[in-house]
Design goal:
By secondary structure, the chain is of the alpha+beta class. The protein has helices spanning 2-29, 137-143, 171-176; strands at 52-59, 68-74, 77-83, 89-93, 95-96, 101-102, 107-108, 113-115, 122-124, 130-132, 153-154, 156-159, 162-168. It is built from three helices and 13 strands.
Length: 195
């Protein structure tokens, strides 16, 4: 009787573990839900046209040594400033797919790439394209759930003692346009109406 009870508990435990694994993998592989929220409050911002402009990102005194990278902000965007071993300066988006850790913590390689410090993905310094997608260990497991995705790259110039990066200065405002509706609504409703 004890053996049958033990066998039943073992089967139940195995099924629970299997169900947990299926649920966890489904969370990453299914089609994401797309919720549409429309608000008619005055807080909605209109989308602005794209406007590319060179803006200061990093002081020259904060520029890393060749072979290293650092982070900066330009136009409200997180930017990775990387200097290759030859001294050329590059600007890339500082969010590393697939899990968005900072690319600026990465290793700048001699082959014209910067390597994600956690999953090992290599991105081209010139284009931001993927050169090698999640090649090792945990990277293979996590990276296998996602399509290889590069990072944005930006034009760079030196001016007035700073490294300047060309970004869309309206990108942050356009991104946030749909998130500010109802922020000041004292009734707790996002549509600005009363109960």
């Amino acid at each position: 009787k004890n053996i049958e009870s033990l066998a039943a508990r073992t089967v139940t435990m195995k099924l629970a573990i299997f169900a947990t694994l299926v649920a966890a993998s489904a969370a990453f592989t299914g089609t994401p839900l797309k919720a549409v929220v429309k608000s008619d409050t005055a807080l909605n911002m209109a989308l602005l046209p794209s406007k590319k402009k060179f803006v200061p990102c990093l002081s020259l005194k904060d520029l890393p040594k060749p072979g290293f990278a650092t982070s900066g902000v330009a136009g409200g965007l997180a930017i990775c400033i990387a200097v290759d071993p030859k001294g050329s300066v590059y600007a890339l988006g500082d969010k590393c797919p697939p899990v968005n850790q900072p690319l600026s913590f990465g290793k700048v390689n001699n082959d014209g790439t910067i390597e994600d410090p956690v999953l090992g993905t290599k991105f081209s310094l010139k284009t931001g394209d993927v050169v090698s997608w999640c090649p090792t260990g945990v990277g293979k497991i996590i990276g296998g759930l996602f399509e290889p995705t590069g990072v944005p790259n930006f034009k760079v110039r030196q001016s007035s003692g700073t490294i300047q990066v060309e970004v869309d200065v309206n990108a942050k405002a356009n991104f946030e346009a749909n998130y500010w509706s109802g922020v000041l609504d004292a009734q707790g409703k996002a549509n600005g109406k009363y109960y």
